[in-house]
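step 4 of 6: structure.
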Amino acid sequence: MTLEVKQIEKSYDNAPLLRGVSFTVDSGETVCLLGRSGSGKSTLLRIIAGLENAEGGQVLWDGRDMSDVPVHQRGFGLMFQDYALFPHRSVEQNVAFGLRMQNLDDREIKKRTGEMLDLVHLTGFANRKVTDLSGGEQQRIALARALAPHPKLLMLDEPLGALDRTLKQTLLDDLRQIVRTACIPVVYVTHDQEEAFSIADRLIMLNSGKIEQVGSPEQVYRHPVSLWVAEFLGLGNIILAEKNGGKSDTISTQFGEIPFAVGSGVSTERELHLLLLPEVPGMRISLEKNPEENEGSYMLITGQVTETIFLEGKYRLSIKTNGPSLRFVSQTQFNTGENIRIEYPIGEIQCLN
Amino acid sequence: MGEDRYQVRLKNAAFSERAGDEPALQNEIRTNPVTVGSSRKQTHMESRLLHRENLQTALLWAAPAAFLLFFYFYPLAAVFLESWEAAVDSSINWQRVFQPLGFTLWQAILSTILTLLVGLPAAYLFTHYEFPLKSVLKGMTTLPFILPTVVAAAAINSLYGPRGWFNLGWMALTGTDTPVINIVNSLAAILLAHVFYNTAVIIRVTGSAWEKMDSRLPEAARVLGASPFKALTEITLPLLLPSILASSVLVFMFDFTSFGVILMLGGPGFSTLETEVYYQALQRLNLPMASIISIIQLVCTIMIGAAYSRINKAVQIPLVPRMQAAGHMKAANFRQKLLLILLVIGLVILFVLPLTSLAARSVTRLEAERGQRTAINTGLTLDYYRELFINRRQSIFYVPPVKAALNSVVYAAETVVISGILGALASLALRRRNKLTRFMDTLLMLPLGTSAVTLGLGYLLVFNRPPLDVRSFTLFIPIAHSLVALPFVIRTIAPALASIPDSLRQAAATLGANPMRIWLEVDWPIMARSALVAAIFSFTISLGEFGATTFLARPEMPTLPVAIFRFLSQPGALNYGQAMAMATFLMVVCLTGILSMERMKVFSFE
């Protein structure tokens, strides 16, 4: 039970939309396609579902090319953005639709529809009109409808897009649980990184039609491969640096010279972007008035606290330096206006492409 | 309702984009600060002011009301009375009533089904595919609907008639002298013509619902395992059903009340209620019989109209509008391309070909003229247009066609004046929204729901003594046309007038303008465009009106549509050619009017 997407190409209005996208999804795995709106994520889902044709590449199911299989025979489930519930049918009829298409007998349909409604915690909603449901209820019905025919693969297109934040959180927990129990490959499309991080086993970062990075949420967070990924995820502080010519294997930053072989990533270009995460092991923050010797394995940043926010047990500091403004997370409190120094372990500095 | 296509335009303002702002207008009128009848306690002063305003409104309504009473209700009452007397008298042959009723229903049902069969695929084509010249083709399919019926009938005749392109072409190719398509004077011609001019209704009404339907709904069905056919029958068609029903009832109504097409293409062998009224009244001079049929026709139209408004009001399923232009695709694979090409070819044959063949036929000689035994000169010619100016027969009843055109223009101008004055009065009165106004507004719409033939019959019954004698008083034709045009004029002028905020007039007054100057400097410039549109509207309505005119036009004073009808029923290639020339002329004039109205977006004051 593996979905394999191979070198998919697609253009829209003569502009390339997908440029050779390839990935695989295994049973029980949730893969999240993360990218800006307009990056071709939804189109990719539609191509996998068979609603649109790719201009190049293949969609394979267990090694079999699906290009000649029409949409309704693929057995892939797709939950549409804004749900696309049938407005002329009741909740029960919506959920039962896929089962009816399989020509199951009425008793079986009734039974499975009931199970699905239980699964999404909407028991007793069977005879309601879908147009009378709230956004969250519609979302659950759409999920039940997509899951009812036991699809081989489940695709979700921005399933929580239109919902408010608190509702999103509850639904996300439910969704994760339901999707895990279904034990099928799941492709989840979103532009919201929080959503992606909380549901994905694997993230696929899609940038202007190309895959920028694939990895577990932790890998992507800890080691973004490119400037785009770091910026898109809003990971933290990006500073400019310049490689020093000649034999000295160092780069100069606004915060002093550091050795070239920084934490991860190598770039051949002279201009570099360095990523400083707001919170890394070994980072020390202290008031500037009791200066300590710099031990050499740290980059020293000094600046003034312009803002401090207490969130989830930690302090988020905005710091005005003589270069760009930076953000760090501290375990201890610092007040606005205080001058502080940050010792950032050089080993944790990442070089972005 | 009957004959005239324009009547329909307003009645169904529901599906014309332009009509969309009408409710807004009514709101505006209601929320106008001068609105009367508020619940707060009125001071003496205010109530006097109110009284004066109500009086003003009543005075403004006086002329339109008198007009309606005398030229609409009075003749209609006469038809009722006549039919009542006839019905009491047992000598009526009811067979003569039920036979046309049966045929009217039968042809209307058949026509509606065929129109749906053409209209639904066309609506699908226009809402789902992008292709070159799409907007032109879409415009051409709507065109027949807004042209006068005589033009539509003449266009069908120019293509499939015994002297049309197909038959003469076939005869020339094979050397035979029998036409291959004998559809004129058959049911087929009636059905073809009805499809020709009513498909636009399906395309507009169902098409706009289809356009608004979320294209992901059928896609969701497909993903859930529905075949394309299942997705169509389970999702798309049920969702479109209300609009399909509404447009079908509308089409049924037009087919049921069709007059010109039946008369010109069905011939004497077929008679519907409308044409039977015509035969009974004008040929058998059996006015009681004509009245009975008229009343039955009226009852039927009222019932169909009621059915329509019920369906239209029926709770519609809220459809999430789809994203802009989503689902408009280019044909990608072979099957889609084939489907698209076949649909486009079909629409071109059905809609574009007749209109172009009409124009082409008016400048092409295809056969010998009568009495010409020598070799036939086929080819391009302007003879048919030249002949329009010549009175060949030297008979007072056969005026040269150019005279008919002149008559038409004079009648149309008179219609513009009459409907313009009455419409302006009514529009001014409509600025004050009260009980009387609402009542009058509804009343003025009634002529639209009445068959023009019935109206013509009523005039024959009532106005038969000098000085108001149909045979001598020529203003009856523009008067009947004005009844039809008035609702359109009001619907065009009133919104413009209502959109002018009172503060503008007050500002002008404080700056020293007297009421006359205010009208000239403020109101008129703002609503001039609307007035022009209204004028063009009534002009083209009058130019194309056929039903009432056949009853009211004296033999020596025909209008263009009447002349086209006469020339088409005369033998001879020259007569036929002249009918084509006149129909082409009428088509071009109406088209110019319609297009210029489309271009002049009615000015609205924001």
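step 5 of 6: annotate
 - The mean pLDDT of chain B is 80.
 - The longest strand of chain B covers residues 364-365.
step 6 of 6: archive
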